[in-house]
Amino acid sequence: MKPRIIVHGGAWSISDDLMKPHLNGVRKAAGLGLNILNSGGSALDAVEQAVSYMEDNPAFDAGVGSFLNEKGFVELDAMIVDGRTLKFGSVASVRRVRNPIRLARLVMERTEFHMFVSEGAERLAERFGLGLVDPSELIVEREVERWKNLRREGKRSSYIFSTVGAVAMDSNGDLAAATSTGGLPNKMVGRVGDSPLIGCGAYADNLVGAASATGHGESTMRVLLSKLAVDLIHSTGHPKSAAEVALKIMKERTGGLGGLILIDSAGRFGYAHTTRRMALAYSKGEKIVAFISEEDRQT
Ligand code: ASP
């Protein structure tokens, strides 16, 4: 099996000035993941590395540069899923972890549990030697400005979906998916979105396919968007159609918008979004194709 990877850097009306950082970010993330796959690394290693890079890249709403909550600090959620075993690791509402996706992997592999939140998750980070950062290290000036503007306008939150995700297949044909986010701008303290919830923000099953989602978390949860898309691969005949139908169902049933990336068990890619734009990159042989997909080019 030839290894492959697809990554996303969120789906929203990415403004023209942010197109380049998004494009460069997803390209680099997919390239790092592909290098790992080409040197014999697993799909889990590849998605962890790709997402961890985007957490370190302040262009995205994950890790450093994440949106601030209503109290002006960052709360992060992340999840990784192993298509071989259906096991996953996830963390929610962490404030002092630089790379929540790395912590999610440790949860999956080093504990008998699947999900940890807030203080308990941060204790694990310390125990596993990931180290904790000062919460202020995750905050960038751009987000302080956005937060001040939202507070001034009295808006609860704005619908910008700049979550990151990756899906990969390695040379054994094993699938993995990962998603990481700072959630919605100006969200209430303690609000957790879909990203760390299994079947919502991501899903992976070697027998069918794997997916990572971005979009309105409360809508995504209600239709279990990633699991829905994976389940639709058989009946729709292609992961691209599965992504389109899953998002259509979400829009019709909840009004929510978002984006999806998929790889099926045959190694075929799929993506779709109901937002204006989506930042995407995937491997084509040894090359990386990166682009900002535009809504009107969607079928
Ligand atoms: N799904 C995320 C959330 O609701 C937001 C995003 O996709 O950017 O927390």
Structure notes:
The protein has 8 helices and 12 strands. The protein is an alpha+beta fold and 299 residues long. The protein has one domain: (Glycosyl)asparaginase (Glutamine Phosphoribosylpyrophosphate, subunit 1, domain 1, 4-Layer Sandwich). The strands form 2 sheets. It has an 8-stranded mixed β-sheet. Strand 9 and strand 10 (269-273) form a beta hairpin. The longest helix is centred in the first third of the chain and has 23 residues, at 16-38. The radius of gyration is 17 Å and the shape is globular. The mean pLDDT is 96. Aspartic acid binds at residues 10, 61, 161-163, 181, 183-184, 193-195, 214-217, 220.
Key phrases:
single chain, 299 residues, alpha+beta, Glutamine Phosphoribosylpyrophosphate, subunit 1, domain 1, 8-stranded mixed beta sheet, 4-stranded antiparallel beta sheet, 26% strand, binds aspartic acid
